[in-house]
Write a structure and sequence with these properties.
heterodimer; A: 282 residues; Glutaconate Coenzyme A-transferase; 2 domains; 10 helices; 11 strands; 23% strand; B: 254 residues; alpha/beta; three-stranded antiparallel β-sheet; 7 helices
């Protein structure tokens, strides 16, 4: 089955108000070309679930977001995501801030179709105060331990970025960490994967061992070939983070004129190709 | 001028946090915590496990900034998912920062001001709630002052002793805030109600200076010892092996 599609065909499947999980971690292997396609669209009122990086910052800064569910939002080499900070400090978005492990647990519960999973994480902290929707559950066994019942984080859509994929939707990560990309896919109704390069199925083991094939075609509805698609986040071994570009992006949070210029130059474009050309021509 | 810097004293104080930890994964966040953990491994805790800061366990001990140099000896794979499993299973000791910390060791790295519309958004909860309930946690504060050592933190990310006690014995059985190390001294919670105690002052720091810069009442023992000074061997390892470029020193004012 050929599941290839373009960024814009993918966007046509998204709706206002959807809950969208974005794979990767901080400023690492984020499906940025798909995020950029969202920025070009008229989508709004989205709920974003993410180990957040510039995906969250950009979606907040362009008014796409109603709610963010996260454990942190960071650019790694720049610890605080400046556009996300502005959105929070202006009270522009609803924030569901969780412990990082709780976020994983919520995705995992959704993936394996459980209403919740118990965890000790969160107890005693203000995670419970700022998220009054969270409930406790008591162990039915002799220990009777009270734990947080982390509810399933069910997603309408998952977006992930892989190093390689075939046109059927088998995906391959060649870097050191899959992060939680498989869980995002399993937690979502519709699953879309961008990749650096689409290759033939029989070539999937040329660059990595069988252990790198953690995304299989049952977990994916659409594949977008997007060379440089994770830019400016890192996508090892294909490319490192573009620290210069990230610095430029981060600096725009302090200066509305610089942000306007950044948008005009890199975001308010017709296609991902134009973005890649704008980056190259710097 | 004595023979060592404040940063080197802090590195030794942080190293001492790990004494007795044995085969435990150490997750030091920041340059000085990394320097301290590596110093501990090279001197008195050789069995500690360290990562490259990404997803590999390193068998050898790199200098600061050299974690991912070619030629490092990798002894295992530790992606985030394995870290989370390990964290909840308990064989980990983390050293986190603290934008605010209070007398019972409650820590805030989430935001300053009200959560709904914060004055300053910080990192977010990250792993602090789960860390503090599941394994030993310590804090490193490079800028000891009343804005950090506060009577009450704005948001509780890492759980302190009063809140852990309120959860009861079962839920808090893995809770331990081992120590807080600042640029002025070392603090522990070895008191009847687990409120913060001044365990030692760094060389050339007075008890009064610590008290003046702390926004709550510290427990001060009758005799406050001085933090262990770096040995000649500690200094050699720091200066020649772990931090020849003096990266960690930039984190601390002399």
């Amino acid at each position: 089955m050929d599941k290839r599609l373009t960024e814009d065909e993918l966007i046509a499947e998204l709706r206002d108000g959807m809950t969208i999980g974005v794979g990767g971690w901080g400023s690492r292997r984020k499906p940025m070309s798909l995020v950029r396609a969202m920025l070009r669209s008229s989508l709004r009122d989205l709920t974003i679930v993410s180990y957040g990086g510039p995906d969250v910052g950009l979606l907040c800064a362009t008014g796409k977001v109603k709610k963010v569910i996260y454990g942190f939002v960071s650019l790694d080499s720049i610890p605080l995501e400046p556009h996300f900070r502005i959105a929070r400090q202006e009270g522009a978005i609803e924030a569901v801030e969780l412990d990082e492990g709780m976020l994983q647990w919520g995705l995992y519960a959704a993936a394996i179709r459980l209403p919740f999973l118990p965890t000790r994480a969160g107890l005693g902290s203000d995670v419970m105060k700022i998220n009054p929707q969270l409930k406790l559950v008591k162990s039915p066994y002799q220990d009777g331990e009270e734990l947080v019942a982390m509810p399933a984080l069910r997603l309408d859509v998952a977006l992930i970025h892989m190093n390689r994929a075939d046109s059927c939707g088998n995906g391959q990560f060649l870097g050191p960490d899959l992060f939680f990309d498989d869980l995002y896919c399993m937690a979502a109704k519709r699953r879309f994967m961008s990749c650096e390069k689409i290759i033939a199925t029989e070539d999937l083991l040329r660059e990595g061992s069988v252990h790198t094939l953690k995304i299989n075609r049952m977990m994916v509805d659409g594949v977008v070939e997007a060379p440089g698609g994770a830019h400016f986040t890192e996508c090892p071994p294909d490319y490192p983070r573009d620290e210069t570009f990230q610095k430029e992006y981060a600096a725009t949070a302090k200066d509305p004129e610089a942000w306007k210029a950044f948008r005009a130059r890199y975001l308010d474009l017709g296609s991902e190709r134009e973005y890649q050309e704008a980056v190259k021509s710097r | 001028m004595s023979g060592h810097t404040r940063a080197e004293v802090c590195a030794v104080a942080i190293a001492e946090i790990f004494r007795g930890d044995g085969e435990t994964l150490v997750s030091p966040i920041g340059n000085l915590p990394n320097l301290g953990a590596r110093l501990a491994k090279l001197t008195f805790e050789p069995d500690l496990l360290l990562t490259d800061g990404v997803a590999c366990l390193l068998a050898d001990v790199p200098p600061l900034g050299g974690e991912r140099d070619p030629g490092r000896i990798v002894e295992g794979w530790m992606p985030y998912r394995s870290i989370f499993d390990l964290l909840w299973s308990g064989r980990r000791h983390v050293v986190m920062g603290a934008t605010q910390v209070d007398r019972f060791g409650n820590q805030n790295i989430a935001c300053i001001g009200a959560f709904e519309k914060p004055k300053t958004q910080l990192l977010g909860m990250r792993g602090a709630p789960g860390n503090t309930l599941n394994h030993p946690t310590s804090y490193w504060v490079p800028n000891h002052g009343r804005r950090v050592f506060v009577e009450k933190v704005d948001v509780v990310s890492g759980v302190g002793y009063d809140r852990a006690a309120a959860l009861g014995e079962t839920a808090s059985r893995f809770h331990e805030i081992r120590r807080v190390v600042s640029n002025l001294g070392v603090f522990d919670f070895d008191t009847p109600d687990h409120s913060m105690r001044l365990a030692s002052v760094h060389p050339r720091v007075s008890v009064e200076e610590v008290v003046e810069n702390t926004g709550f009442e510290l427990v001060i023992p009758d005799a406050v010892p001085e933090t262990r000074a770096p040995s000649a061997e500690d200094l050699r390892i720091i200066r020649e092996v772990l931090d020849p470029d003096g990266i960690a020193a930039r984190e601390v004012n002399e």
